[in-house]
Amino acid sequence: MSLLTLDNVTIRFGGLTAVDTVNLEVKQGEILALIGPNGAGKSTVFNLITSIYQPTEGKISLDGKALTGIPTHKIADMGITRTFQTIRLFPELSVLDNVKIGAHCRGKAGLLQAFTRLPSMKREEAEMEENAIKALEFLDLDAKKEDMAKNLSYGEQRRLEIARALVSKPKILLLDEPAAGMNPQEKVVLMEMIRRIRDTGITIFLVEHDMKLVMGISERIAVLDYGKLIAEGTPLEVRSNKAVIEAYLGS
Ligand code: ADP
Ligand code: MG
User: Fold this and answer.
1) What is the reported pLDDT for 111?
2) What is the position in ligand 1's atom list of the atom closest to the CA of 36?
3) Measuring from atom 25 of ligand 1, which residue has the nearest CA?
4) What start and end residues bound the annotated signal peptide (predicted)?
5) Of 9, 12, 16, which is best to mutate to test ligand 1, by the most ligand atoms within 8 angstroms of its C-beta?
6) Which helix (H) or strand (E) holds 2?
7) Element (H, E) at 34
């Protein structure tokens, strides 16, 4: 069953077609990886799904509901959250507050109210705090909840970003190069956590360059090259696909 559907999606930036007539389905409960060379359009696909960009042509839908015209700040309400290719944390805030900010992107209470503690917001805030702590437990960061984000190791900071994306209980989680810059040990931990998240029923769509990680956790892989989808299949199928080897894996 398709959860997220890209239907003939194209985006042009001036003369550049960054994403070119892409048709792709992300199935409920799967781990799907999007791979391809630098500049292939992978992050742009995520920016399209999260309404940072609107497609020049085509349609994106979640659970059959079109995302066209939905503003970025409403995308989490629809059940889509993401992490970014580069870390975007508040370094001087605590680990817990960094996660709560993720919840406030979705909750009724704004960020300001979260920190000024209006009485009417107390219950909602308590609930958010509980969710934030659960998200941190899930990423094995609960013991560090009072630490400043900047004092975490690099691998922990990347996991903190995932915790923040999880707190609003998405249907689908988009991870843009989650293993970038991690050492082999951190990558093993990350893989285990991505699996754990998926096992709770959250669908995972990730962009990643580390082929060991991609081949190890994905059920399906889609390959983008110059904005076009050139292959789609199981890790085994994609690894032996001639066009993929030429465009990406061979290098
Ligand atoms: P990837 O994530 O696969 O490395 P990107 O999606 O970041 O690639 O970029 C795909 C192409 O689109 C690149 O050539 C990039 O320069 C271009 N691009 C992305 N965003 C914009 C933008 N806002 N304006 C102009 N060009 C862009
Ligand atoms: Mg990218």
Assistant:
1) 59
2) 3
3) 13
4) none
5) 16
6) strand 2-13
7) strand 31-35
Looking at ligand 1, which residue's alpha carbon is closest to its atom 20? 44
- Residue of 192, 139, 133, 191 whose CA lies nearest to 161: 139
**Contact call for residues 226 and 18 (beta carbons, < 8 A):** no
Q: Where in the chain are the domains? A: 1-79+170-251, 89-168
CA of 18 to the centre of ligand 1 (A): 6
Q: What is the pLDDT of residue 121?
A: 66
pLDDT of the residue at 151: 97
Instruction: Collect the ranges in the chain with pLDDT lower than 70.
Output: 104-121, 251
Q: Which ligand is nearest to the CA of 86?
A: 2
Task: Give domain 1-79+170-251's CATH architecture.
Answer: 3-Layer(aba) Sandwich (3.40)
**CA–CA separation, 244 vs 251, rounded Å?**
10
Q: What is the pLDDT of residue 5?
A: 98
The residues lining ligand 1, judged by C-beta closer than 6 Å to any ligand atom, are 13, 16, 18, 36, 38-44
- Structure token pair of residue 62: 């979640």
pLDDT at residue number 15: 93
Between the alpha carbon of residue 241 and those of residues 37, 40, 228, the distances in Å are 15, 18, 15
